[in-house]
Fold this sequence. Notes:
- By secondary structure, this protein is an all-alpha fold.
- It has one domain.
- 69% of the residues lie in helices and 0% in strands.
- The protein contains 3 helices and no strands.
- It has helices at residues 29-57, 60-76, 82-114.
- Helix 1 runs antiparallel to helix 2 and helix 2 (60-76) runs antiparallel to helix 3 (82-114).
- The radius of gyration is 26 Å and the shape is rod-shaped.
- The N and C termini lie far apart (106 Å).
Amino acid sequence: xxxxxxxYPQQTPPAEPGYPSAYPQQGSPVQYMQSDxxxxxxxxxxxxxxxxIIGLFFLGVVFGPLAIVQxxxxxxxxxxxxxxxxxxxxxxxxxxxxxxxxxxxxxGMFAAMGS
Length: 115
């Protein structure tokens, strides 16, 4: 009859006295800081993408810059947010072009009414 030895959770090797450990200890402030920054970065990246998508359909001139700002915050926290940044620039450019077209059309309409 063979018995299986009990399994123990894997532990990180202890650091030598006077030297910092290469592995953050479970529950250490370093580990919580890293996971908090990662979580915040992911939230900024998601928000950037949401603003970018909304800006394609509604008020691109407002949601575009918001998407770009959120993408920059995500990238500052080392989280990729390329999709949100690209959509933000597309929203901003199309929003500005739409405003210019609207102004030109209104000017043409007023010119036609005056003659």
